Amino acid sequence: MTDFWRSGDSFYPISCCELNPRNSAALGVGAVMGSYLYRDSFAASNDRITIYQNTGADSINPYNQSSGSIYGNWQHVIEPLVELDYARKAWVGVLADSWEFQGKRWVFKLKKGIKFHNGAPLTSKDVAFSVEKMRDEKGGSLQASNFSDVTEIQTPDDQTVIFVTKQPLAIFLDRLRNRFILSKVAGDKYGDQLYQNLVGTGPYKFVSFQRGGNMVFTRNDDYWGGKAAIKEVVFRKVTEDAARLAALESGQADFINAVPVHEAARLERHPRIRVDKIEGLEMYFLMMNVAHKPFDNKLVRQAVNYSVDAPAIVKNIFDGIGYTIDGPVGPRVIGADPKLKRYPYDPKKAKELLAQAGYAQGCDVQLYYSAGRYPKDREVCQAVAAQMVKGGFRVELISQEWVLFWGPEGVNGGKLPFYYNNRGSLTDADTFYDQYFRTGTTKRCNYSNPELDKLIDEQQKIPDTKKRIAFLQQAGKILMEDAPFVPLYNLASIYGAAKNLAWKMRPDEKVLGWDMKIV
């Protein structure tokens, strides 16, 4: 893939651009990092903030993403209709001014006076255009399933968007979280080159994207929500923990995510660095694809659950800075059932189940993961493999680059039988159950259970959250019995920042430049 930079309405390959101070910002991280290598000061500045993350976009298509931190990157440029206010536990409008649930219709009124970076006004046609792009799986979108229940999008006037669904869909707002709106005018102008000429309504404008997840954004001084304090935001993907730490301590980076738990105390002693922690919403798990043997056998899946000691992983690998999950979702998630308990660690029971399933001499499995994607992922998978051996399994560990692991030849293509992953920003059990376990929704695990499907369908029609919870709890019981996955834990998100950089912490992994300021 070619790296690009943008100048006005034109988009050029980086190879054709001369490296000079005038276009250093536009050329992305590779060019701008030079100014940091010799920087004497450790203080962040209003001119530019450089953020090192352990993840990054592998595609310039913003709909080819389904990760919390990457959503945060794109949200600098393109924005959603609504988002969740975590403190209030309530939905708030971003581009939408109001909305109403009318059975099989959701009616949204857009805020007036919002303009795209190209000067075009935000209209209902931009929303309809963007949703169609999200539904375009052949075009690379990984977000189509969020609109599988939508049968029609109506735009009766410029300020009104109506989503018509197959059945009443009370949880549709959750489907719209992180669903970003692009300019239809830009789409009509650039066609297949739309994503290389990304035009949104956000507080920052798109400058560049580089292969490997590096991004540069520059402030939108005409932003409808008020001008951000930081002029330029640079995101750089650095998967190695040691490299991110070294960059922060040397002053090359102003901010890093995924600080290893065993490094937090040492980093806190640094005179010019601050360490911030917040309990995250991302849930970690081991998923089994039931289309692959031996995971088509429920007894084997239950044996896997009995073979994994999640509390020991939290204690020994994460220094106790984590929260083991009982049941299929964490306790803060809507639909969690406090009566459900995880499978206890019982290797003897696991061996008995394997024998009943026809694997008395042991069972060979391959556990896939993407090294460096998540905190301590290699150590976690090594620990899981060692634990499962005691339960009668022989485990081969296979690490893949994220683009392969998560793409059509990996998880999303249904090609991986057993893998370690997480589900970020999980606030409602319906999102997880529908996305992973509803029949036909995804190939990620190919699970199918008509009874579960019925419960998911019924609760999605109920606007009263308290009534929905009863259905979700029944669904949770089914999943724990059928055991298509092993729920593990929530972790604390740990960040390192220059001491003079203030920011608003969020539980959803997003790091937002417009929520930062120099103090």
Topology, element by element:
Blueprint: E1 4-7, E2 10-13, H1 29-32, H2 34-37, E3 48-53, H3 68-74, E4 79-80, E5 82-85, E6 90-93, E7 96-102, E8 105-110, H4 124-134, E9 150-157, E10 160-165, H5 172-175, E11 180-181, H6 184-190, E12 204-210, E13 214-219, E14 232-237, H7 241-250, E15 255-256, H8 261-268, E16 273-288, H9 298-307, H10 310-317, E17 322-324, H11 347-356, E18 363-369, H12 377-390, E19 393-399, H13 402-406, E20 418-423, H14 429-437, H15 450-459, H16 465-482, E21 485-498, E22 501-503, E23 516-518
Helix pairs in contact: 9-11, 14-15, 15-16
Give a short synopsis of this structure:
The chain is of the alpha+beta class and about 525 residues long.
Structure notes:
The strands form 6 sheets. Strands 1, 2, 3, 12, 13, 14, 15, 16, 17, 20 and 21 form an 11-stranded mixed beta sheet that branches. A 4-stranded antiparallel beta sheet has the order 7-8-10-9, with helices on one face. α14 (429-437) runs antiparallel to α15. β7 (96-102) and β8 form a beta hairpin. The chain has 16 helices and 23 strands. The protein folds into 3 domains: 1-75 and 202-272 and 499-519, Periplasmic binding protein-like II (D-Maltodextrin-Binding Protein, domain 2, 3-Layer(aba) Sandwich), CATH 3.40.190.10; 78-183, Dipeptide-binding Protein, domain 1, CATH 3.90.76.10; 280-491, Dipeptide-binding Protein, domain 3 (Roll). With 519 residues, the chain is of the alpha+beta class.
